[in-house]
Predict the structure.
Amino acid sequence: MIEWRRKGEWLELTAAREPVDKKDAEALLPECFHGKWIAKWRGSGGIEWKGNRIRLRLFPEEPLQYMSEWAEVEVLFEDDFCLVANKPPGMKVHPTQEGEQGTLLQAVQWHLEAEGQKCRARHIHRLDEDTTGPVLFAKHDWSQSRLDAFMRDKRIGRHYVAIVQGRPAQTEGIVDAPIGRDRHHATRRRVSRTGEPAVTRYRVIERYRSAALLEIILETGRTHQIRVHMSYLGHSLIGDTLYGGDSRGLSRQALHGERLLFPHPLTEETMDVAAPWPADLTGLRERLKK
């Protein structure tokens, strides 16, 4: 277990013993700080020690990358290293063109500024504009590098719920089908032999007269993956007109990120963050039950 506390820009760690010199102090640091980070802090004076206390300048003040914009943002989890925000429907995670406003990233940045935190928000993953649920942000370069590595190593779990058309024959299953661009449509994706590997697990939670509620877990993170794979199975998401869904029940795809699981950047403790269902999806579920 890592014993630590924050002091302004510095992370203070308690070492097992008092180091004899700088090299020894570096050797006493947990493995997660080794490599390029030690070299970076060494070159910038970012390592100090006194007694068995070793300090790292882990939280430097930094300029903004995007202009912040006031917006209501529901923070589901936050500490000195990272933040999880609940994305509403109709909001992009980040700007996709110069001068674009109204994104979750800008709303999170406003929240940080309002709380007196002089750091930049960095999104670790994305959700489609009309998909709701938790989005993970890092607050500093070191945290981002750790969370990006966890994402590459498939240690970040994303659990979704979706309401699909029809009643899947199987109670659970795996869709292992590569996804690539649709050359006939600028934004659509499709299952393609030459696409990137994509694996989706699903389980039926509830069955209705002509629809079903599924729990879905991603093993990969391709663009529109759930939407493409469910359409491929013949069970398009309700509201997902881009992939064959009927819009009469919902004006967007019936897809919500219900849980996000990730190792904490410092301790690697598993963080399990749940996001409440949005009102439109709750309403659709109740109508289908009746």
